[in-house]
Amino acid sequence: MRGRVHTEYRRLGVFAVETEDHDFSIIEVRSGLPSLGDELIGKLNSLGEKQLYNDTTLEKLDVSIKSIHLARDDVKRAIIDAVRGK
Predict the structure, then answer these.
(1) What is the tally of structural domains in the chain?
(2) For residue 61, what are the domain limits?
(3) Nearby residues of 42 by Cβ (< 8 Å), 6 or more positions away
């Protein structure tokens, strides 16, 4: 699955990714650091620890996928929850 980095809370490594299905996943990056607009490839529609590929920078990212299948209106709340560890 492909997605584009849509929203970032860079200081804590939390990002919202808009998927090709037009919903959103919240990821916490463990290694590497994407930027707004970067194209990511991987299992964006399943929770847990994953490795994604940043097709823009050509690097691998180790991430934890915190939320999936979110509507645009739910992204801000999900990022806040991810930052707070919920």
Answers:
(1) 1
(2) 2-84
(3) 1, 50, 51, 52, 53
How far apart CA 34 and CA 6 sit, in angstroms, is 10
pTM of the model: 0.91
Integer Cα distance of 85 and 79 in angstroms: 10
The tens digit of pLDDT for each residue in 10-26 reads 888 999 999 999 999 99
pLDDT digits (tens, 9 = 90+) for 55-77: 999 999 999 999 999 999 999 88
CA distance 13 to 31: 9
